[in-house]
Amino acid sequence: MSKCEQCIVRKFSSLRSLTKDELINISDCKTSQHVEKGAFIFEEGDYLNGVYCIKSGICKLTKLSSNGKSQIVKFIKKGDLLGQRSIVSDDAVGLSAQAIEEMEVCFIPKTEIKSAFKNNSNFSADIVNDICYDLKIANDHIVEMAQKPVKSRFAIALLELEEEFGVDEEGFLKITLSREEFANIVGTATESLIRMVSEYSKNGLIATSGKKIKIQDRTRLELLGENI
Amino acid sequence: MSKCEQCIVRKFSSLRSLTKDELINISDCKTSQHVEKGAFIFEEGDYLNGVYCIKSGICKLTKLSSNGKSQIVKFIKKGDLLGQRSIVSDDAVGLSAQAIEEMEVCFIPKTEIKSAFKNNSNFSADIVNDICYDLKIANDHIVEMAQKPVKSRFAIALLELEEEFGVDEEGFLKITLSREEFANIVGTATESLIRMVSEYSKNGLIATSGKKIKIQDRTRLELLGENI
DNA sequence: GAAAAAGTATGATATTTGTCATAGAAAACA
DNA sequence: TGTTTTCTATGACAAATATCATACTTTTTC
Question: Which residues of A touch B86 (CB under 8 A)?
């Protein structure tokens, strides 16, 4: 079993603030697991008994709306933590986490994380900072969803995905999503999203190759996102 | 100057976890201030140097969209804290806080709160718990805004406002908002919101008296919110 | 490698929502 | 008290978006 002290991934998250001893403790009781594409790490309503640290791969955090549609709220990638709320709360999780590519994740039991949280105020400050940042982003998304038309939201989503996941040698977004998944980010019907892909391609804003999408004209996309 | 140790309001927030000594320290360096209706406690982009504790009154947290429209993200009332992020971060705030009725608030400087956060893990756990809860609510709102039509969102907003602020002797919502403010919660045009008020009144879902709104048929409003 | 399934694409149409115009009601003001 | 300003209300219309139908492509499965 690999050791947390030697794992670079921890440097990307709040875990960077842990002391050597704390890391060794955590390393001793963590468990690694492999997650297949499409598998759920947890589902809405589950009770978590600890925190997940993502070693590789990407998952989407989704929530079902009462009309049956699923909304993608956030993506989680290498270096991110998942389930921080379980450190301080015994409530059920409000979101599902589903892998969109193969993943390697480590599970750290609540008790260990909790003791680090209690004894290491740098760590707890880091956790608070992370969650506050998530909250700020979530608030931005509320405004975006409430005030901007679907076309702007799609433009913004593309720019954010490029920012977060980068592009390959040919300039295509490294993250590959189905049209339906894009629709579930933007909050629109799949058909509407497909139409936008066609339109943006025709107008030279983006280019596609199968599922892959590449941003061609960032400036105009940004303008579209502003919706002025 | 009133003393935090004797202030009941603290029992509603994370401050309840502070020790007597910590409370006395904070009491010594806090400042009280009166906020007129319509005045801003802080605005998007400001840098906060501490946390506000709300003694009385209500304010709205808003964010401007790039198209100039303002979105109400959350309400803050008696017993709530404001600006928790400033405890662990020096970033500018992302939202404006504007009083919708007269308020009394206490300002607690960052340094004091920070030291309590560092030394009292019950307090820091409480803070994390609060913010996590806000994040959960924010995620719910993202889904709602993205997936539900305006009519459902208005129905949900009415139910949430009744839940959060209660009703007076006649059953009217205790919180009074202009039609424009309602529109800024729901994320729609003021005219559209006014039309919904008319429609819901006609159908017996709500009743109005000037600005005041009363829920008449909770069951049907809930159904509308589900949008089935 | 053929059949089935899932995903993508596009047209036609209905519904939802926003915008602009106008008018009445209420509140602020002088 | 009359006047101005803001807020509420409603109609007419335009724009945005969803839905339904259908066809084509790609992927999966046996």
Answer: none
- Element (H or E) spanning B54, and its range? strand B50-56
In order of start, what are the domains of chain A with their CATH numbers? 4-120 (2.60.120.10), 146-225 (1.10.10.10)
Q: How far is CA B91 from the centre of its chain?
A: 21
pLDDT tens track for A171-206: 999 999 999 999 999 999 999 999 999 999 999 999
Nearest-Cα residue of chain A relative to residue B142: A142
Give the strand pairing for B96-99 and B58-64: antiparallel
DSSP-assigned letters across all residues of B183-213: HHHHTS-HHHHHHHHHHHHHTTSEEEETTEE
A67 CA to D19 C1' distance (Å): 15
Count contacts between A and B (CB, < 8 Å): 144
3 state DSSP class of A109: strand
Dihedral (CA of A49, A53, A56, A59) sign:
positive
Does the predicted TM-score (pTM) go above 0.90?
yes
Separation of CA B188 and C1' C18 in angstroms? Answer: 9
Rounded CA-CA distance A69/B148 in Å is 10
Residue B147 beta carbon within 7 A of nucleic strand D = no
Return the beta strands (E) in A88-209 as ranges.
96-99, 103-109, 206-209
CA distance A22 to A118: 12
Distance from CA of A73 to the nearest CA of B (A): 7
How far does the CA of A186 sit from the C1' of C12, in Å? 24
Give the residue on B whose Cα is nearest the Cα of A120.
B118
**How far, CA to CA in Å, does B195 sit from each of B156, B162, B199?**
16, 21, 6
Q: What is the pLDDT of residues A86-110, one digit of tens each?
A: 999 999 999 999 999 999 999 999 9
From residue A212, alpha-carbon distances to A61, A174, A177, A179, A197 in Å are 21, 8, 8, 10, 11
